[in-house]
């Protein structure tokens, strides 16, 4: 199943709107996305947004500065992972 219209951006996975704490950049991407989606007239059309990520793909750091709490918990209690994945989490 395809998307009815796409505003494509070549940003790293998880950073679709831009760099963290870059309000102006994120708003620019959001506005360009909305404008592109309004202008598309043909189903399945793809519009490439005119933004470039500021660093080469191999230098993109996708790891948070500190591990999320659930990752810390699972590293200390790995036997809990099957319960979590099966959604059988005790209250």
What can you see in these coordinates?
The protein has 91 residues and is an alpha+beta fold. The chain has one domain (5-85). The protein has three helices and two strands. It has helices spanning 23-39, 69-76, 81-85; strands at 5-8, 45-48. Strands 1-2 form a two-stranded parallel sheet. Strand 1, helix 1 and strand 2 form a beta-alpha-beta unit. The longest helix is centred in the middle third of the chain and has 17 residues, at 23-39. It is extended, with a radius of gyration of 19 Å.
Secondary structure elements and pairings:
Elements: E1 5-8, H1 23-39, E2 45-48, H2 69-76, H3 81-85
Parallel strand pairs: 1-2
* Portion of residues within helices: 25-40%
How many distinct folded domains?
A: 1
Number of E-state strands: 2
Strand order of the largest sheet: 1-2
Mean pLDDT across residues: 86
Question: Unreliable segments (pLDDT under 50, ≥5 consecutive)?
Answer: none
Order of helices and strands: EHEHH
Radius of gyration: 19 Å
Strand proportion? 5-15%
**Which structural class best describes the helix and strand composition?**
alpha+beta
Number of helices: 3
State the end-to-end distance.
38 Å
The major beta sheet can be summarized as: 2 strands, parallel
**How would the global form be characterised?**
extended
Compact summary:
This protein has helices at residues 23-39, 69-76, 81-85; strands at residues 5-8, 45-48. The protein is of the alpha+beta class and 91 residues long.
Which short descriptors sum up this protein?
about 90 residues, alpha+beta, about 10% strand
């Amino acid at each position: 199943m395809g998307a009815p219209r796409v505003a494509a951006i070549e940003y790293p996975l998880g950073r679709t709107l831009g760099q963290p704490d870059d309000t102006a950049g994120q708003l620019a991407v959001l506005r360009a996305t909305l404008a592109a989606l309004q202008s598309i007239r043909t189903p399945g059309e793809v519009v490439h947004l005119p933004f470039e990520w500021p660093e080469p793909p191999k230098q993109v750091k996708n790891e948070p500065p500190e591990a999320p709490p659930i990752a810390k918990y699972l590293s200390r209690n790995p036997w809990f992972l099957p319960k979590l994945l099966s959604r059988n989490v005790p209250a």
